[in-house]
Write a structure and sequence with these properties.
Length: 94
């Protein structure tokens, strides 16, 4: 099922909020990206920041499952959401 940009941004916002509340993963994200607490506050409604959070979550199946289970989302949906946000387009090198 294809999703629209508005729904993708809602799920992106949920991902940012979920990560901000995750005491185990938040420091890992901050350490790898340099994002501060202020960046999180400013980035809540920023689709570009939401995309960076989804890129981070998509690095580990366990993180995908934990977020999707919490939000009652299908695991495959996260890739669709990422594709709808800025920077998520498929790059064709040929």
């Amino acid at each position: 099922m294809a999703i629209g940009r508005e729904r993708a941004e809602v799920i992106g916002l949920q991902a940012v909020a979920w990560l901000a509340a995750n005491e185990e993963l938040l420091p890992i994200f901050q350490g790898s990206t340099g994002a501060s607490e202020d960046d999180f506050r400013r980035g809540l409604s920023d689709p570009v920041f939401q995309g960076s959070v989804l890129d981070f979550l998509l690095m580990d199946d366990a993180w995908i499952m934990a977020f999707c289970d919490t939000q009652s989302l299908g695991y495959e949906l996260l890739m669709q959401v990422r594709a709808m946000l800025p920077g998520g387009e498929q790059v064709h090198w040929t």
